[in-house]
Amino acid sequence: MKTRSALLLGSLSAALVAFALTSPRVVAADKIDPVADAKAFQNFFFKKFPNVKHEDFVNGPYSMNADLKRQWQEKEEFPPYEFALDAGKEMFATPFKNGKTYADCFPDGGIGIRQNYPYFDTKEGKVVTLELALNRCREANGEAPYSYVKDEMASLTAYMAYTSRGKPMDIKIPDDPRALEAFENGKRYFYTRRGQLNFSCASCHVQSPGERIRAETLAPALGILNAMPIYRSEWSGMGTISRRFATCNSQTRAVPLEPQSDEYRDVEYFLSYVANGLPISGPGARP
Amino acid sequence: MASSIRVRATSNGDITEVQALIQHPMDTGLVKDPKGELIPAHYIQQLKFECNGKDVFVADWGTAVSKDPYVKFSFKGAKKGDELKISWTDNQGASDTTTAKIA
Amino acid sequence: MTTTTGPLATRRLILQGAASVALLGLGNLPFTASPARAAANDKYPEEAFRQKNEADAIKALYGKTAEPSDKVRLDAPEIAENGGVVPVSVTTTLDKVSSISFFVAENPYALAASYKLAEGAIPAVANRLKMAKTTKLVAIVEADGKLYSASKEVKVTVGGCGG
Amino acid sequence: MKRTLALAMLLALGLVATARAANEADYKAAYTAAEAASKQAAGLRNQWTVTVSTLTAAKKAADGGDFDRATAAAKEAEALAKASIFQATSEKDAWKAMEIR
Fold first, then answer.
1. What is the pTM assigned to this prediction?
2. Is A138 within any annotated ligand binding site?
């Protein structure tokens, strides 16, 4: 095991150096400019994959491989997340002990609003994700919060995503230095290498989308959260954004942080903002 | 709780296409749980589709059928509005049944 | 197939090893073993589902051998997205089809699923199967009492990079 | 290239096994050093899973009385923890190299 990862380390840094040389002009990015970042991010993928339709990026690996896309479309006829979706719809309508429901916690009764999450809460000065808002709604109504990585949270977010299907991602960054800071933290987390394999999110999802890591084809980073939550055959179950971040970390042998810790909330904020304009396609089915 | 069987039966007048998705773990009995004990085999053995009183399609399944199993087939001799009865039994003796109108 | 590395994977390898050894012994079984009753009966083919390899399973289920035929079209991915959920389907232009079955050669038990089609059923079926590893996939169609087969190789491996 | 060389070198340095048989005192010293480094890595929110598993293996070996293996494992855990600390500090600026601009 030791030699294999050292080998990986070596070959990877070689690839890194190559990438660094070819990456577009390097400018001192001291001023945080999300609009420019988002434009550069989207153009990078549009140029790298000219024949992938822009809205197709949200289909992750299926935008990268025709055979996989066929397998996926076959499954979409009767998708495995069907049960989570129905359970989510039922849970969403079931009143809490105090008679209230989730609809009372969310704008527009929680229907068709997923594309605005996560948002920056100026009172709290932090990013609030959909999963966090759902648990806060439960706690505000005297109910125990759900685990961020288990089925109940996945069913709720699956239903809320379903009600927003097709709507373009619409994340706002208020004119507040703390919001810009959160965006920058998210960006830094996305590009920072971690774990003994010394990979960052970008090592897989920017450098080599469309390529394989054993059986799986890597999804492009652009629109990677638009399909969340996802039913993964690998887990033969639903996965929330929190679960995905934790498992990605442990694959690079980095110890995952607590679900909904600041870094995860900020990287979700960054990834969602740069995907603005691309349609929500959740809940999704993935390998 | 809703039935464990989701079914969609659509007819184009002559041929009825049936799709079914069933909520079931389909455990093979060869997999260990995190504590290292074998999860006992628990899988649907027979799934029957009846229409107008006679079997139109019977599935005999082994442990190699995926979790939350899905099957699609078509048959002739039924028309819109007919009722399709679907029932399954598994190796632990559990069973479930549901009916669906052909759309 | 959930990825089970470590002790269990080796146990399964031993299992398969033992299976192939047992098979050698079986090889010289007199061919005229009583043919199983036609698959059209309602009884769950317990015996066939217990067979380790595909030839035995076909014999136990149908009591006769199949011949490859291009009238049987087997549709399965070249590389499975995930061994636990592999979409597989078969269609055929043969008529008077009474049964369609799927065999996954490298699985612990080869027979995966067997379908009995009544009068009027269109000879086609789609389902999602589990495959333990890269394997030969065989579809058998029983038409007018004779067996026709098609087979295809499906590559299966785990996903992810490290862990 | 320079950065990864340092990382690999650090890792190798930690793996040098002491010549004479290690006793409980050696193990204790190695374990405390490894635990301190591991805490620091956790503090930087950049702990590696292999550091944690190697530390537990060291403890397990020590409980079983095999102080040779326990000390070696503790030393390896320390090296891994140090490597993760090195990674966290060097990545503070290195991440910009991959940023899409």
1. 0.80
2. no
